[in-house]
Design goal:
- Two copies of one chain form a homodimer.
- Chain A starts with 8 loop residues before the first helix and ends with a helix.
- The longest helix of chain A is centred in the C-terminal third of the chain and has 31 residues, at 383-413.
- In chain A, 68% of the residues lie in helices and 5% in strands.
- A three-stranded mixed β-sheet of chain A has the order 1-2-3. In chain A, strands 4-5 form a two-stranded antiparallel sheet.
- With 480 residues, chain A is mainly alpha-helical.
- Chain A folds into three domains: 9-166, MgtE N-terminal fold (Alpha Horseshoe), CATH 1.25.60.10; 176-296, CBS-domain (Roll), CATH 3.10.580; 309-479, SLC41 divalent cation transporters, integral membrane domain (Tetracycline Repressor, domain 2).
- At the A-B interface, helix 1, helix 3, helix 13, helix 15 and helix 16 of A face helix 1, helix 3, helix 13, helix 15 and helix 16 of B.
- Chains A, B: This is Magnesium transporter MgtE.
């Protein structure tokens, strides 16, 4: 909506290339300055340098803060800081909000306290609260000291709610009116504003104690006769509202389900204390889905792709350590049967098939159950039915898949017993995978844990160790 | 915003339990009727039955279509159809739009053509186009015949754009005005509407040929002097617009980046042909992230959790088949070294560690690269830098992780050479994983393919077979 927003990736890439071109010219100039250090040359080069810098500055001035944030993320470290220096200070705050956490750190590290205070001064209370965790210690106190009393309270309020609650995401911009005035009065009142809060699709109707009486949509305001009283056209009953301690995920689902744009946030006494908008919810949904996808690969956070290697190692370590442990356990399970493998070495070649297919099928089951839980559609009472269904799927897959693999093993090694053991082990491991895939998330849910977290590691650990144990155990019993 | 929307999961669950309670009472009555078939009893029971049915109907009448959709998804097959029969016909269309594809099929299968035509008649052109693929063949022709000419063209237009384009997601509801009238005239014009299109945050300013001249936000309309002309307060330049063939994913990013609520869709001659709203984008984002998460586990679509086993088997087969093939290849790689394993059986116990850690690390790399590509921040020119970084991470992990595992293997088997081979194999397999993790998505991207699709299978296949080959190969060379 603002000027020069780049609506598609092509335009964004063009902007990025422009910036890179200007940067490379500047680097060229810097190179020249280094090589030819005669006084008069210096002057010329420094003028040319200034020219390029000015061109880059003008380019940046025309870009939307969200686009500059994107470009900063796409630039390697030195170029990023060069561009960041050239960005007009009044955009700093908004850009810091837009960049990813990883990149925000690199930008803030280059700013002194005065710059950071100036950047903070351009932000609203709710935005300040978002930025607070990234600021150097002590600075937030100085920033708070710059605010008026109401804003300071708002920042404190926003910071007091846990992450992932409505209170942490709400903003404090809103328009309120009384119910006993006419729409004409409301229209005249609005004309005294210089701007309305972003995403104003409704006006909150409150009483003298700031308690919500209803909502007046801009639609009603615009299509109704101006002589009508607010009370006559406002929605009073069954208005959707949130409490600040409500879960942000549930709020996002409500926005999705009922196509909301803005929703009032009420305290225990039904006083309007803030507002949640669809823009907050879109951000939240994107971050959640990113976290979920990164989590599947055991990554804790989004990485700055140009971050130093050591930071990336830290981000990836936790999961690898867990995996190392589970792999070691699986390895010890195999160790139990080393005697059997020595006598029938085909077991070594076949065992990864049993474990691998089990892990795959288990991941499918657990993904399905975790999603159904997230949609709120699975209750512990549905356990038997779900388990029955997943065991049915596992049985069919075991007989078909396992049967095929069994025939293959028989053909390869000319050992019908080996084929039979393979089929039986595949089927049993798939049944184990289905059971664990249903039970793990449901048990985690019952104990109030996030059913998704680490579910993939757990199921793979079970199907690996379990698969090796079942296959090698059956082989030891029946073949040796 | 509509009546009786359930804003949180608790309320939704209460609704679900109410429905289940009413259903169970009804079942009880049906049971009685079956057992005691005396004429006068029949009458009484059938009255009681009717009473419960009526109570359930009243309950459903008060619920938002999106909530009924959720309840239908959460109910097993027979209960679902019972409830579906009781839903008032005028809600049928909206509910069909809200339920998942899997559940929609089960509902449509119970409706006759007349019911489906009636349901379709309650929908807008863009909604009809969404429903079209689920309708029985031929019915769409009848539905189209019921429409007026303009609507029919709109449906055809919406159907003519490929899935995942702006054209397939846009709606056709909008308010347009001319630029040479005053805001007072616009305000009077709006008062003639009974309702504004959902998510109207701006009015499109067009010339006589329906070409976009600018946009008038409701904000400007409300805060400006009514005597002002539209042209004076409208945004004319650098308004964000889409073309119908634009990619829906890029549009969603633009909504996210610039906090948009509604955007005009223009044809080649800048005529306004439709409108995209944030509600469409929220739906799109949710579906995309679901598809991505399901895709990670190799599931093609969301499953109706109460679907028959055979449907689930089909949904899960494709991936298992691929996995079966890659597992078989890995098994044959091991087969090459059966002689070595016979001579040193510890190799069989240790080899899954090498393969497993490699797969894990490879998945981390590929997830990171795929996300960076999706954000548009990786270009082929960044290849060398990315590869360098990932190889660095792999080397550190290989030396640390692999070193630890090497010491462990040495301690367990009292064989220092085995420990060294283990460390070397882990490091090499991690380097292989890093290389493949960077190259696979970049190569797929260069050939215009989706870099994410099946990336996890591919990388695991490489690190499994590669890991076995490297470890067993090194062991054969140096230990035997």
């Amino acid at each position: 909506m603002r000027q020069h927003a780049a609506r598609d990736p092509d335009t964004l890439h063009r902007h990025l290339h422009d910036v890179q071109l200007l940067l490379s010219r500047q680097r060229l100039v810097e190179g020249l300055v280094h090589r030819q250090s005669m006084a008069h040359q210096d002057l010329v080069e420094s003028l040319v340098h200034k020219q390029h810098e000015a061109a880059l500055g003008r380019k940046l001035e025309r870009l939307h803060p969200a686009d500059i944030a994107w470009i900063l993320e796409a630039l390697p470290f030195t170029e990023r800081l060069l561009v960041w220096d050239l960005v007009k200070a009044d955009k700093d705050g908004e850009i810091l909000l837009e960049v990813s956490d990883a990149v925000r750190g690199t930008l803030i590290a280059t700013m002194d306290r005065a710059e950071l205070r100036a950047a903070a001064a351009t932000l609203d209370a709710d935005e300040l609260a978002d930025l607070a965790p990234s600021l150097p210690t002590g600075l937030m106190q100085e920033v708070l000291a710059d605010l008026d009393n109401e804003e300071r309270q708002q920042v404190h309020a926003a910071l007091s709610y846990p992450e992932d609650t409505v209170g942490a995401l709400m903003d404090f911009d809103m328009v309120t009116v009384r119910e006993d005035v006419t729409l004409e009065v409301v229209l005249r009142y609005l004309r005294r504003f210089n701007a309305l809060p972003d995403h104003t699709d409704k006006i909150f109707v409150v009483d003298r104690g700031e308690r919500l009486r209803g909502i007046l949509t801009l639609e009603s305001l615009l299509i109704s006769d101006p002589d009508t009283e607010v009370a006559a056209v406002m929605q009073g009953e069954s208005v959707i509202t949130f409490a600040p301690q409500d879960d942000a995920g549930s709020a996002a689902k409500a926005f999705d389900r009922y196509d909301l744009v803005s929703v009032p946030v009420l305290d225990g006494a039904r006083r309007v204390i803030g507002r949640l908008t669809v823009a907050d919810m879109v951000d939240y949904m994107r971050e959640e889905s990113e976290a979920e996808i990164l989590g599947h690969a055991g990554l804790r956070e989004e990485e700055d792709i140009f971050a130093p290697v050591i930071r990336s190692v830290k981000n990836r370590w936790a999961w690898l350590a867990v995996n190392l442990f589970t792999a070691f356990v699986a390895s010890r399970v195999i160790g139990l049967f080393e005697g059997s493998i020595e006598r029938l070495v085909a077991l070594a070649a076949l065992m990864p098939i049993v474990a691998g297919i089990g892990g795959n099928a288990g991941n499918q089951t657990i993904t399905m159950i975790v999603r159904a839980i997230a949609m709120g559609q699975v209750e512990p009472s549905a356990l038997r039915r779900l388990l029955g269904k997943e065991l049915g799927v596992a049985l069919i897959n075991g007989i078909v898949c396992g049967g095929g693999v069994g025939v293959l093993a028989w053909t390869l090694y000319g050992n019908a017993g080996l084929g039979l053991v393979m089929t039986a082990a595949m089927t049993l491991n798939l049944l184990l995978a289905a059971t664990a895939g249903v039970l793990i998330p449901l048990i985690r849910q019952r104990f109030g844990k996030d059913p998704a977290l680490g579910s993939s590691v757990l199921i793979t650990a079970i199907t690996d160790s379990g698969g090796f144990f079942i296959f090698l155990g059956l082989a030891t019993l029946f073949l040796l």
